[in-house]
């Protein structure tokens, strides 16, 4: 059978999701725990390769298994072998052709920033600290320019192999005042794109980038023009969306030419 799992993890405990030779990863932790539980070696396919320090509430991956554990008991059984930094939230059966990476239609990321005179201590693994004050009204005015379909090259760091530079940011909003949460939902994100958008909004809030320059920064497709790449600790992968609901509230709500063919596959379960 093929299964999909949704996991929550504390990114500060890992050097990213993908297995690495000389550093702890979420993938290795999950695979090793499954082998300890069942004696079976599996290969997880991740829907998102989060960077070191990035956490997740709803990361999705898939794997094949001969396990006799009922699907509704897989999460509880798996968690008995996992450290407190990661947990399997749910497991479901999926069609044999399901691929958590290529069947995902979109993602929601949240970036949280704490401002003020004192850096956070208890929230240091899930927030980024920006000393002083930010002009939140200016930041909220700027987010509308990010919304829509653009070539986001100006917001991609070097090191990405992708050639699909045009992405659609369907929704972006800022909540809070002293503790700000920037929530972004898009059909895909370039390398460090969410963190660079957050850094650009911080520069706008600090008056280092005027709002009337933002559109030219988007259009010029030059990484140097945008703001800094914010620390990984402030970023959380909130949700991965698919053509049909898998784990609840994860059916992609936007029009997408890919949706119907992928929906037919998922509904065949």
Low-confidence stretches: none
Helix/strand order, N-terminal first: EHEEHEEEHEEEHHEH
* Number of helices in the DSSP assignment: 6
CATH class of the largest domain equals Alpha Beta
Gross morphology? globular
The proportion of strand residues reads 25-35%
Keywords, separated by commas or semicolons:
269 residues, 6 helices, Alpha-Beta Plaits, 2 domains, 23% helix, ten-stranded mixed β-sheet, alpha+beta
Describe what this molecule looks like in 3D.
The chain is of the alpha+beta class and 269 residues long. It has two domains: 126 residues, Alpha-Beta Plaits (2-Layer Sandwich); 132 residues, Pseudouridine synthase I, catalytic domain, C-terminal subdomain (Alpha-Beta Plaits, 2-Layer Sandwich), CATH 3.30.70. The protein is 23% helix and 27% strand. Strands 1, 2, 3, 4, 5, 6, 7, 8, 9 and 10 form a ten-stranded mixed beta sheet that branches. A hairpin with an 8-residue loop joins strand 2 and strand 3. Helix 3 packs across helix 4. The radius of gyration is 19 Å and the shape is globular. The termini are close together. The model has no long low-confidence stretch (mean pLDDT 94).
């Amino acid at each position: 059978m093929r299964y999909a799992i949704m996991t929550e993890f504390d990114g500060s405990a890992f050097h990213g999701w993908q297995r690495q030779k000389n550093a702890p990863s979420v993938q290795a932790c999950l695979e090793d725990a499954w082998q300890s539980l069942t004696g079976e070696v599996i290969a997880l396919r991740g829907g998102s390769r989060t960077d070191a320090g990035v956490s997740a509430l709803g990361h999705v991956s898939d794997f094949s298994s001969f396990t006799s554990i009922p699907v509704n008991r897989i999460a509880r059984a798996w968690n008995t072998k996992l450290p407190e930094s990661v947990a399997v939230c749910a497991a479901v059966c999926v069609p044999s052709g399901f691929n958590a990476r290529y069947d995902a239609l979109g993602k929601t990321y949240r970036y949280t920033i704490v401002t003020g005179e004192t850096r956070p201590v208890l929230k240091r693994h899930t927030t980024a600290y920006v000393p002083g004050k930010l002009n939140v009204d200016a930041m909220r005015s700027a987010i509308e320019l990010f919304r829509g379909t653009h070539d986001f090259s100006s917001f991609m760091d070097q090191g990405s192999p992708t050639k699909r530079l045009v992405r659609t940011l369907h929704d972006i909003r800022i909540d809070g005042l002293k503790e700000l949460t920037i929530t972004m939902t898009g059909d895909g994100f370039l390398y460090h794109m969410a963190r660079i958008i957050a850094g650009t909004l911080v520069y706008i809030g600090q008056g280092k980038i005027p709002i009337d320059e933002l559109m030219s920064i988007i259009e010029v497709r030059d990484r140097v023009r945008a703001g800094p790449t914010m620390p990984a600790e402030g970023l959380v992968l909130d949700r991965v969306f698919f053509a049909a609901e898998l784990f609840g509230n994860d059916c992609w709500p936007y029009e997408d030419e890919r949706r119907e063919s992928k929906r037919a596959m998922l509904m065949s379960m």
